[in-house]
Specification:
Strand content of chain B: over 45%
Order of helices and strands of chain A: EEEEEEEEEEE
Largest interface: A-B, 20 and 23 residues
Distance between the termini of chain B: 31 Å
Strand content of chain A: over 45%
Largest sheet of chain B: 7 strands, mixed
Distance between the termini of chain A: 41 Å
Number of helices of chain A: 0
Structural class of chain A: mainly beta
Number of strands of chain B: 11
Number of strands of chain A: 11
Oligomer: heterodimer
Structural class of chain B: mainly beta
Number of helices of chain B: 0
Order of helices and strands of chain B: EEEEEEEEEEE
Chain lengths: 113, 113
């Protein structure tokens, strides 16, 4: 089955810096890669996603890049703000017909004011 | 987000007791999932359901039972609670007509004493 590795487990940055979280996956057939943000005490919520036919997607200060050859994808947050502090989960989804994602273990991002 | 709810939100029970966590969604999503979240382990899939009356095991099913007699409900039962089942439990749903992104419930914090 699919295996998703996520690094780092903890990331501490100063406000205004950039943050990068990386994930690797094992199943080359996976074709959908969502990122979820979970604030303290809250539910995970989708913040950005990318399909395998796209190399990069951007939404304001966040972006996701995908390298299918190397089987890794990354979340980039620019100009970090304290409200970006949360746990971020990456996931990999197999092709249509199976809607069971495999999640990474999460990255705790701390943005210091 | 209001379309998927969980009850109770907090529960304290004793070892050996049976406890049922409820999950209800109003979107008629085909897929529903139960995860447990423990520090250092991210989101671990307990059980999932592709449709009413269709359920299957996830990564950590031991000690849990599910049923899905109606599309909108997906209860999770701990038959004989153990301290190792102390955790935060999230229910989620997804639709097959979309990309497969997951919508999470608010979570249930369960403590087994």
């Amino acid at each position: 089955g699919e295996n998703v590795e996520q690094h780092p487990s903890t990331l501490s940055v100063q406000e205004g810096d950039s943050a990068v979280i990386k994930c690797t996956y094992s199943d080359s057939a996976s074709n959908y890669f969502p990122w979820y943000k979970q604030e303290l005490g809250k539910r995970p919520q989708l913040i950005i996603d990318i399909r395998s036919n796209v190399g990069e997607k951007k939404d304001q200060r966040i972006a996701v890049t995908l390298n299918k050859t190397a089987k890794h994808f990354s979340l980039h947050i620019t100009e970090t703000q304290p409200e970006d502090s949360a746990v971020y989960f990456c996931a990999a989804m197999p092709p249509e017909g199976s809607y069971i994602p495999t999640f990474g273990r999460g990255t705790s991002l701390i943005v210091h004011p | 987000d209001a379309g998927i709810t969980q009850s109770p939100r907090y529960k304290i029970t004793e070892t050996g007791r049976q406890v049922t966590l409820m999950c209800h969604q109003t979107w008629s999503h085909s897929y529903m999932f139960w995860y447990r979240q423990d520090l250092g382990h991210g989101l671990r899939l307990i059980y999932y359901s592709a449709a009413a009356d269709i359920t299957d095991k996830g990564e950590v099913p031991d000690g849990y039972v599910v049923s899905r007699s109606k599309t909108e409900n997906f209860p999770l039962t701990l038959e004989s609670a153990t301290r190792s089942q102390t955790s935060v439990y999230f229910c989620a749903s997804s639709q097959t007509s979309g990309k497969g992104e997951q919508y999470f419930g608010p979570g249930t914090r369960l403590t087994v004493t």
